[in-house]
């Protein structure tokens, strides 16, 4: 490192403030994305070769990264149609966007319903935890304002995601996330490529 060069320290993945908050006890002000909180789908995340930084929700709009749809659909297929799960897995791991799009179209409503249930559960949990945190005396729990700020960011983001899921139909989803002439288009639209 040359003399006079600025020193920086990376405290973690800037796309997800939750681990930074948990480990270091602070949030940064310009958080643009949050992890989708699909911890229960860790086996599917691993199998598809995805990382948390691929599975994001935009904090300013509630928009959902395309790969989030993949993990929820993959879980549904594993539970209900193992042969289709295998074909969908292959499409995901070989970047066969056409086949993925066919599966997403066919199972769209089922995937959307499961995602809505997930989002509703996150909102409920965040509201419960926020209410509990606000009931604690600041004199004994000085980090409560930071906890509440984190929970409010989560709650606001997932509330926007809920609005999207409540109103989104297949043709809007496809137009929003996918360009059939650009296989990487789904990620580009979400700012992930």
Explain this structure to me?
This protein has one domain (36-178). The chain has nine helices and two strands; from the N terminus they run H-E-H-E-H-H-H-H-H-H-H. It has 193 residues and is mainly alpha-helical. It is globular. Helix 3 packs antiparallel against helix 4, helix 3 (66-80) crosses helix 6 and helix 6 packs antiparallel against helix 7 (144-167).
Helix content: 55-70%
Low-confidence stretches: 185-193
- Terminal Cα separation, in Å? 29 Å
The overall average pLDDT, rounded, is 84
The helix count comes to 9
The main pleated sheet reads as: 2 strands, antiparallel
Question: Structural class, from helix and strand content?
Answer: mainly alpha
Shape: globular
Total domain count: 1
Element order: H for helix, E for strand:
HEHEHHHHHHH
Cα-based radius of gyration, to the nearest Å = 19 Å
Bin the strand percentage. Answer: under 5%
Widest sheet: strand order? 1-2
Give me the count of strands.
2
Summarize the structure.
This protein is mainly alpha-helical. The protein has 9 helices and 2 strands, in the order αβαβααααααα. Strands 1-2 form a two-stranded antiparallel sheet.
């Amino acid at each position: 490192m040359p003399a006079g060069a600025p020193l920086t320290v990376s405290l973690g993945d800037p796309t997800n403030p939750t681990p930074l908050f948990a480990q270091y006890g602070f949030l940064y002000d310009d958080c643009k994305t949050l992890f989708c909180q699909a911890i229960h789908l860790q086996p599917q995340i691993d199998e598809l070769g995805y990382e948390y930084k691929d599975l994001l929700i935009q904090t300013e709009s509630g928009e959902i990264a395309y790969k989030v749809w993949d993990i929820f659909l993959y879980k549904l297929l594993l539970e209900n149609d193992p042969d289709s799960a295998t074909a969908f897995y292959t499409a995901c791991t070989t970047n066969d966007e056409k086949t993925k799009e066919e599966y997403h179209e066919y199972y769209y409503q089922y995937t959307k319903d499961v995602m809505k249930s997930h989002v509703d559960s996150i909102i409920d949990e965040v509201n419960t935890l926020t209410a509990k945190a606000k009931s604690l005396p600041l004199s004994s729990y000085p980090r409560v304002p930071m906890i509440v700020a984190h929970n409010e960011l989560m709650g606001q983001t997932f509330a926007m995601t809920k609005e999207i899921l409540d109103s989104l139909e297949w043709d809007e989803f496809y137009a929003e996330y996918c360009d059939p002439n650009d296989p990487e288009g789904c990620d580009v639209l979400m700012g992930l490529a």
